[in-house]
Amino acid sequence: MSNSDKTSITSKTATITRATDLPKPTRKTHKGLNISEEQLLELYESMYLQRRFEERAMQMYQKGKFGGFLHLYIGQEAVSTGSAFALNDDDDFITAYRDHGHGLVKGITPKAAMAELFGKKDGCSRGKGGSMHYFDPEKHMWGGHGIVGAHLPLAAGIAFANKYKENDRVTICFFGDGAVDQGSLNESFNLAQLWKLPVIYVVENNGYSMGTAVHRHSAGKLADRAYPYGMKYDVVNGMDLFSVIDKVSEVAKRVRETREPYFLEIVTYRYRGHSMSDPANYRTKEELEEYKKIDPIERLKTYMLEKDIAKEKDLEAINEKVEEVVLEAVDFADNNDFPDEEELYQDVYADDDFPYLT
Amino acid sequence: MAQKQFREVIREAIREEMERDEDVFIMGEEVAEYNGAYKATQGLLDQFGDMRVIDTPISELGFAGLGVGAAMNGLRPIVEFMTFNFALVGVDQIINNAAKIRYMSGGQVKIPIVFRGPNASAGQLGATHSTAFESFYAHFPGLITIHPSEPYDAKGLLKAAIRDDNPVIFLESEQMYGMKQEVPDEEYLLPIGKAKVKREGKDVTVVADGKIYHVAKQAAEQLAKDGVEVELIDPRTIKPFDMKTVIESVKKTNRCVVVDESHPFGGVAAEVGFQIQREAFDYLDAPVQRVTLPDVPAPFSKKLFDIWLPGPKQVIDAVNAVTYRS
């Protein structure tokens, strides 16, 4: 029997969604979306900050300034940025371990974010969380979570507490396409719909669960996972900031009013490997280049130039400002102290005098 | 004072804390309309309504995690597992999320949650329904583990657990729910992490927690008839463990048997034995002995099950060994 006669477990012919086959972007202009020109520039700055922050983080990692994991979000910035713009400051964010973008858009400062990567004392999690565990509950950033899919029930619980306390906050929970295969997604969807919890579940489908392409890890369409629970769902072009803002705004309004959950598949792409150790040999250069052609930051830049909202030099000035902010953050992180030795035994329990065994 | 069943005081503790604090709610399988698989939550739905007494689907991962998320965001959930054997499918939510998020967030997020329900074996229920988890949960930093043996302790400790800002594992027993004890009518709380000397004696220290405490107690009563005075210590809380009370007792009796209803490897008995040899080595007149489950899953057959679960005889044998009696 030749190799080709053998039964194959997964499809070898299907591909991930190509850049050219993404859902159609919204046709609305910034005016149609009630975005001012000033806000457009802020959105550009926010996306560019996330990208430069991570590019510098990567350099620092390669220089050996810190260890551990580093999962980069580069390419996906429209999702975090558009979602934060569409939601209120006191709406609750929770995400997986590719969390730098979400942390920055929720207001964690670049200094606190970079210091966390370095494991320093003024990091956003006091140096105890690292890259995968950005927290700032005062800004409604409920983490960075390291186990795939394990934070989906937490999001249901955060939304439950909001419903219990009868406030109008909405919870948004981001995860990668790999998490869709976890039982936690199904249990969380069931509970969220059953108990009508105000939560938006967002799968950032970047095509790959680590190195396994989506058609090789997930049966059926990702968005359809919501269907059996009677949960509303939609698919969004995640390379286009306006499309994310448009859809998340609409969904947030609906969730705030109905107090029922919603599932969004936002199709996007990560330019880098899964983590720093991944050369991404499982995909072609052409596939990556196609996505880079529809880069969300370049797209917004082109839009603003074409509409004469900003000139090249205005955007260059923003870029320079961002560069300075990021370099200051690196400098801050580098010079910030490591946590004191006593910190090892702090924050495990609520009690400062917990009798630890030795 | 009135005689009250274990299940009644669990219910009273929950009711009193729910009356006291609106952020406290309870959820779990059959806790509401069915009034609790073991009737520990009887009447709570009628009193507090279905937003605070919530029937869950059979979805331990989902509702354990939902509880943790609700605790992160300001509530004080009580999550009932019909038994802790069923919690295994959701245990990532307890060990990675409930126990570690405070630490990983640098102390910014507190998780005041109680996971409670029956623990360990309850007769011939087969291997998957008979696991004792006190040693397992006590292993993980970030969790408090409470394992009471009597209604008085259970009530005071459960109330303390609900008010505690740490995630708490509160272990009960199907076979203890009907057990009665005098319990005060007025409110009281007990401190977490404090053992109780439940019988004073000069000859040998016996440490026993949870349901198997009663096995040790029977053994102590039998031994007293033979002139051996057992000092019986109920740690009540497994983590933090009140080692001081045990060490002080061993320094007096010079002999110790630890009775522990988990498997031997890395169990409560192993830890207590280690601490005694380090802290009271020069006081020991005999090696510390332990009585645990064998390193074997629970068998179904009654004959095998009765061999598997330690009884008073094994405790008496161990006491005889450390006192060099035959």
Give structural notes:
The complex is a heterodimer of chains A (358) and B (326). Chain A is α/β, with parallel strands linked by helices and 358 residues long. In chain A, 40% of the residues lie in helices and 10% in strands. Chain A contains 11 helices and 8 strands. In chain A, helix 1 (37-62) packs across helix 2 (77-86). The model of chain A has no long low-confidence stretch (mean pLDDT 95). Chain B is α/β, with parallel strands linked by helices. Chain B folds into 2 domains: 2-183, Rossmann fold (3-Layer(aba) Sandwich); 196-322, Rossmann fold (3-Layer(aba) Sandwich), CATH 3.40.50. Chain B has a 7-stranded mixed β-sheet with strand order 3-2-4-5-7-6-12, with helices on both faces. The longest helix of chain B is centred in the N-terminal third of the chain and has 15 residues, at 6-20. Chain B is globular.
Report the top-level CATH class of chain A: Alpha Beta
Helix content of chain B: 25-40%
- What CATH architecture of chain A would you give? 3-Layer(aba) Sandwich
Strand content of chain A: 5-15%
Total of helices of chain B: 12
Number of strands of chain A: 8
CATH-assigned fold name of chain A: Rossmann fold
DSSP strand (E) fraction of chain B? 15-25%
Please trace the helix and strand order of chain B, writing H or E for each element.
EHEHEHEHHEHEHEEEEHEEHEHEHH
